[in-house]
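Troubleshooting: if your tokenizer reports a length mismatch, compare your output against this known-good record of 374 residues.
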Amino acid sequence: MTPLNDLYGQDVFKKIIRNSFNRDRIASTYLFYGDEGVGKWAGGIALAALLNCEKPVVDETGNVFDACGECRNCRQISGYNFAEMYFAVPLPPHRNAAEEVDLTLEYLKLKKKEPYHIVSSTRQLTIPISMAREIKRRTAIMPPRGVKRVIIFDQMEKMLAASADSLLKLIEEPPPETVIILTARDPEHLLPTIQSRAQKIRFKPIGVEEISDYLKAGYDLPDEKAGFYARLARGSIGRAITSIENENESSLRQTAFLVFKGLFTRDNPSSAAIACEFINPNDRGETERVLTWWQSFLSDIIRLKFGRDSSAIVNNDYGPELGKMGDRVTQGDGFSRMLNDIKETTLSLRRNVHIKPAVVKLVFNLRRYLDQSA
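Known-good structure output:
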């Protein structure tokens, strides 16, 4: 169960939801946006519990503060078996309705075990139009008295245009006693008509100490290791968990550094060739993790370059080499542009562009900010 009080960070979100609930101003549609693994899904489950809790917790002023987490409705919501809670989630290609159900249950099983888990796949993920249509059909019936129906559309940027059109009709004429929750990394990737009809709430990056505390509590990590993964995560509990759960992450980190180093030490063709050789063009999730490491390396370079505490860098074993790389960046805003290029490439991978051309383009873009004569 992840009620509001158990969410890590996201104080603004909690304040907005509590105020809206106590003033009876809960919106019919919300858009929770922000990085992956920062609590958008957990926030949706917490809101569902708050709306349906039989014994809500009140503060000293008498205002409702949180769901109890213990009543029948709260237990059913935390178990993902509440009758009036529906999910539309991105799935890989499938052959029939039965396989769609199995894949959806597998997705929910992962989220039930770890609500901050970032679900990725080597195959293209989309929210099927059949899900939107089925939800629209089922919500034509009024929920039982006193029950708030909650619908969660996760990773809306992976919804096909036809599905989005179907969803728009649902949002324009929301069923009674229903709250629709959309989650997305960036609202700009959604239809303007959907954006305009939803109340937007940004989920901010989570602090290093809070991520470290989460990892120590849930994954039994010692302080040093929890701190390492927390710094690497760049504000996302989900990214930290991905690093922990991947047994081959250490090897992937070495590969990522080898390719990253090539950006600074080789010419354009050689840099692109190294990227093509070592980055798997058939594994989208692995490529995204490589780019996460690149962001980590570049962030450490910035810390070293501008005299920040060198002990706080994530990749201290690569410290000497990273320090030298910083001298190759020639433009004053080169670092911020490089970080932005990596971010944009990561987003494009999530929009299912071809991996190899996207990475090669990124290599050439990043090298524009380097001293080519060194």
